[in-house]
Every structure is written in structure tokens, then in C-alpha cells.
């Protein structure tokens, strides 16, 4: 009862509380959470994964799960600590006292370099400026700036901050971002590997499949028109009576997702994909979830390059079809609906992450 009252009261009270008081409360709360992680001192290097999400975007949550799975698979004996965006933002001063130069900082990946999701960029700036003596590896990212190079104050600021760090290593997750990062940040170390979620293979256990699952976004990255979505719905319903709508964002979830709840939420979403004969999506991780669950998928682009670029890694997967707004959707549905397939790309893609291992190994084990 008390928690429900507080949930209602917080938005009413907050505008009247000074910002420094809110910052102090959040600081104490998040430092307490960090202390509960029981981070142990170590003479050898540790891995700190910074900036993982607690929000309801399951694409970002899947990135965090895959990052942790990847690091645990490759570095079983190396201490690994997962710290959320909020814990880092409000506990930075405390973290700066317990992280030493031997430790490697991994910054959470995704599609948040640039101006679209600027809070994540600001957190990255703070991490870079705070840990100038650590190796920092930014896990696979897409980049987007609203304006061309030279016309954006945000871009100029990012160039100044990134240039400050001499051991900063940024991984692009598709070719377009890779080329932009090379142009924008000539003094930084830029690499390329797939979206880290493609490291996962969750097609087993297989489930009974039925119907078509529609997964379209409604935020500022939306590029598919409402008229197109209406046409897709019409063609889907002509194919089967079982047509459902979903999203990789849990819009009705009003509370943060705890780290220990991440896998449960994701498994529920993966199962939803595994119970469908076809997914039609314009979300990057709608496409990626389809791939790793071996679900046929028709995918549209978003308002910039990240989906088309990520598709290039899996374009030879026959059950994933990238289309544009002029595509013959009915034919695409007829082609892919209910085809019997298996996802066999995971092993081939996993070698593409060796670049990340090389960067970690060089620091952990002093390999030149």
C-alpha cells in the first residue's frame, strides 16, 4: 500500500524538491546498490561493464545480457561487475575510488552514440573523462548525428572528449557507423563487429508456431508510415486469422527492470517470437530476435542506417528479408510464412568478436 502511495506522490512532489536534494538522494541510493555488489580489491585486472539499462527497452536489455554472456564465456576467472546507467551516473565519484588503472572498463553498446539518445552519450563523456588511465572499450555501437560534421555542437563536444583519452577503443556494429566514426574521431581506435546480441543462439527449445507477429516502433526512430502498417495488417490477416502486435519495448512497465529480472523478461519475449510463424518488424532487435530464435522475418529500415547496416551481417540468412516501402509485402509474406528453417549463423558470427577479445587480452595479459 505504501509503495503504491509513493508511486502516485513522487511525480506531484518532485517539482518542489531542489535538484541538489534529488541528486543527493539518488547518489546515496546508488552508492548503496554498488556497495551491495561486494566489489573486491584485486591486484590483477577486473572487468567493469558500465551503463547497462534498467529501462523497459528489451533490445537494450538483450545487449546487456549478451555482453555479460560473452564476457563470462571468454573470461570465466576474471571478476566482472555490471553497473547500470543510474548506478554509474549517480555513483561516479565512488566508482572512481574503487576502479584502478589495471581494470578494464566496458561501456554498454547499442545505438546511442550521437544525438538520438543523448543521455547515454553524456554518460559516456563522464566515463571517459573520469577514467583517463583505464583502457575503455565501447561495445558495438551505431552512431547518428542530426547534422553533418562541422555543423553540430554535440558532435564537436564528442570529438573533444573522445580525443582526451589515449586508450579509448570504440567498436562500430555496422559499416556505415564504422566509416562515420573513423571520420569523426581520427585520434580514437575504431573497430567493427556485429551487434553483440547476435552472439546469442536461443532457438532451442523449439515451440509450436502459429500466426504472424507485428513489431513496429512508434518513437522518434519510426520510418514506416501508418498507411504502410495498415496495409501490412491487411495482408497478414488475409494470410492467417492469428495476427498479434508486440514491441521490443514494454510500454506498460512503469518500474525499472532489475538486473536479476533481465533474463526472465527476455525469455518471455524470445518465446513470443518462437511461437510465431513470421515476424514483420521495423525494430533492429525485432530482426535480431527473429534471427537468434530461428523465426522468419520481414524487416523494414528505421530512420537511419542501423537496421540496414546490421542486416549486412546476416543477409545470407534466407529466412530474414530486408525490404523497403515499395516492396511487394504480400509476396514476401507468402515466401516466408511458416518456412521450416534453422539458424546456423551464430558460430560464423562469433569469430567476428575476436577483435574485442584481442583488446581485452592485450590489457589483462599484457599481450602485445
Characterize the structure shown.
44% of the residues lie in helices and 15% in strands. The chain is α/β, with parallel strands linked by helices. Strands 1, 2, 3, 4, 5, 6 and 7 form a seven-stranded parallel beta sheet that branches. A five-stranded parallel beta sheet has the order 9-8-10-11-12, with helices on both faces.
**SS-based structural class?**
alpha/beta
SSE string, helices as H and strands as E: HHEHEHEEHEHEHEEHEHEHEHEHHH
The helix content, as a percent range, equals: 40-55%
Broad shape = globular
Sheet with the most strands, sense and barrel status: 7 strands, parallel
Question: How many strand segments?
Answer: 12
Which stretches of 5+ consecutive residues score pLDDT under 50?
none
How would you summarize the topology of this molecule?
Elements: H1 2-13, H2 19-36, E1 47-52, H3 58-74, E2 80-84, H4 85-98, E3 104-107, E4 110-114, H5 118-130, E5 135-144, H6 153-164, E6 168-172, H7 175-184, E7 189-192, E8 212-215, H8 226-239, E9 243-246, H9 262-274, E10 278-281, H10 284-292, E11 297-299, H11 306-311, E12 320-322, H12 329-336, H13 346-350, H14 354-364
Parallel strand pairs: 1-2, 1-3, 3-5, 4-5, 5-6, 6-7, 8-9, 8-10, 10-11, 11-12
Defining traits:
368 residues; alpha/beta; five-stranded parallel β-sheet; 14 helices; 12 strands
Question: In short, what is this structure?
Answer:
This protein has 368 residues and is of the alpha/beta class.
